[in-house]
Write a structure and sequence with these properties.
Layout: H1 8-13, H2 17-33, E1 39-43, E2 46-51, E3 68-75, E4 80-84, H3 91-103, E5 114-117, H4 125-133, H5 137-148, H6 151-154
Antiparallel strand pairs: 1-2, 2-3, 3-4, 4-5
């Protein structure tokens, strides 16, 4: 559910008390561990943490007017969620995250970047904090730019050489066209 709130305080004030308390606790952990090159604000109808244009002028490739998203907090219809782009698309980081969460004994309900929870007790706050801390903005930007670079530019030098064209089969010999018979004359 996208909120129409324009500030984080408005967003939190619009939530029921239990959700406000849970998201505020997760928010406090994120802010405590967030690199100084990130900013907090409203993005896509949720509380967002992003790389501002002052740090990464190109912005988000999908919509360059938007700063580069890094993490988000949201109250959805049936759950709350923290979205961690620092885990999405990075197999080593995701593996670390899943293993660290498992060590807490808490059940992980996770999609690609979305960690869903119904109450604060379901969240491994220390793991969320460490995931945020492990990804300073410069490291995140480096991964992001390498991930969106076109495949041709990612190839190692010399790897872009094309393979020789496969030999084409000689054209099949065609039969000479059949001679047409002169049209029969009509009897009158």
């Amino acid at each position: 559910m996208q909120s129409k709130a324009t500030t984080v305080d408005q967003y939190l004030a619009s939530l029921p008390e239990d959700r406000r308390a849970a998201l505020s606790a997760v928010r406090a952990v994120i802010l405590k561990n967030l690199d100084g090159n990130y900013e907090e604000g409203m993005q896509y109808g949720m509380i967002g943490y992003y790389v501002p244009h002052s740090v990464f002028p190109a912005g988000y490739h999908v919509d360059p007017k938007q700063p580069l998203p890094f993490a988000s907090l949201a109250s959805q219809k049936n759950h709350m969620a923290v979205y961690l782009m620092c885990v999405y698309g990075q197999s080593e980081q995701e593996q670390w995250f899943r293993e660290a969460w498992a060590k807490t004994g808490k059940k992980l309900d996770m999609g690609k970047s979305c960690v869903r929870f119904k109450k604060l007790e379901d969240v491994a706050l220390d793991v969320i904090g460490e995931a945020i801390r492990r990804t300073p903005a410069k490291k995140y930007i480096a991964h992001y730019t390498s991930a969106i670079r076109s495949p041709e530019k990612k190839k190692a030098p010399g790897a872009a050489k094309s393979k020789p064209a496969a030999k084409s089969k000689p054209a099949a010999k065609s039969k000479p066209a059949a001679k047409s018979k002169p049209a029969a004359k009509k009897r009158v």
